[in-house]
Amino acid sequence: MPATPTISTPKTTGLLSAIVVVAALGYFVDIYDLILFSIVRVDSLNELGIMAKEAVTSQGLYLINMQMGGMLLGGILWGILGDKKGRLSVLFGSILIYSLANLANGFVQNIEQYAWLRLIAGIGLAGELGAGITLVSETLPKEKRGYGTMIVATVGVSGAMLAYWVGAEFGWRNAYFVGGGLGLALLALRVGVYESGMFEQTKKTDVERGNFLALFTNRTRLVRYAKCLLIGVPLWFVVGILITLAPEFGAALGITGPVTAGLGVFWCYFGLVFGDFASGTLSQLLRSRNRALQLFLVFCGVMVAVYLFAIPGASPTVFYVACFVLGISVGFWALFVTVAAEQFGTNLRATVATTAPNFARGSVVLLVPLFQAMRGPLGLIGSAAVLGAVSLLIAFWAVSTLPESFGKDLDYVEE
């Protein structure tokens, strides 16, 4: 449907404004809490009485699925609220929910308590990135949007490294307490942040806002939305399977020493810091979001192949170097969310920018059973190779057929 301009040109803000800083710190805490379970999975399950390796793997995947399932639900909830009530309401509400859930997570005594709290935390975690990217995209000049979202992502993904350090130094229960405390402390910084001018203008019109079903009632819009979702799947294949199950892959590859999921996550997310910086900068220099994404997807395919086939029998150091470079190769997360936000009008932008990353994260719910089903006939390595190849090829097709959004004027609504 044709785009309809809104009332007037909204004001913009600077690259290092309070909005960008608060969004970046919010994503930092979000990533800390999001990735913490992958880091403390083995220790926490062992303390709860689950000692057998197969049980640790299966119960760990169950808990990941609960967290990611919560993110699927939360993505829809916060996306709709972001377009109906405002971007700031999502930033406040989401961080409050996942902070309280993580504080409670430090007290769990059994798997069922753990699972329900990961579900609640997942619902809360779902709102942070999409609302932050939407707010930054709508308040920065269009020539600087890529740099703004790059800052949010680069600062944000480093939260995983803090999660590893806190988990290693203070234990898994205290790590959850710290995550919840950081989130509650961040709420105080949000008082001076103002709402998006584009959203405020759209509120003055009679245009319907936050109608999630509107994404499915128009074929062109639905295809565009589906392509946005598919671009982010390879990242969560890498993080949710290759890195979360680093101990299992280390054993299958014959790595000469012990491999831990915590260090795998640490080095992968350390790489993501550089990758998000590089992908955001590259999209600005090339003046093309799509070309930058294509280059990173090819790079990711090469590194998945290296991880699975080029390091059998290597030392743990080489394995962690592979995790680091693999992290760089999937450092297009904020660029992917930026593209999703830029593809849709103001009345659906928060809905898309919030649901797209969470549906991509939630793809782990589908990837895990597919991985498990193929693991029998193909083995651990073969199953991962097939799943990785398929997800990367589909993502490359999706980005190659999306309209270019670099420098696009976002001050319009979807009819």
UniProtKB/TrEMBL annotation:
Predominant location: membrane
**One MF annotation (Gene Ontology) recorded for this entry:** carboxylic acid transmembrane transporter activity
Q: Which domain of life is it from?
A: Bacteria
Q: Name one Pfam family in it.
A: MFS_1
Ordered alphabetically, the record's keywords are: Membrane, Transmembrane, Transmembrane helix
Is-annotated flag, keyword Magnesium?
no
Pinpoint the Major facilitator superfamily (MFS) profile domain residues: 19-406
Query: Where in the cell does this protein reside?
Result: Membrane
Topological type in the membrane: Multi-pass membrane protein
Annotated transmembrane regions: 12-40, 60-81, 88-108, 114-135, 147-168, 174-193, 228-246, 252-272, 292-311, 317-341, 378-399
Q: What is a single cellular component term in the Gene Ontology annotation?
A: plasma membrane
Q: Please report the name of this protein according to its UniProt entry.
A: MFS transporter
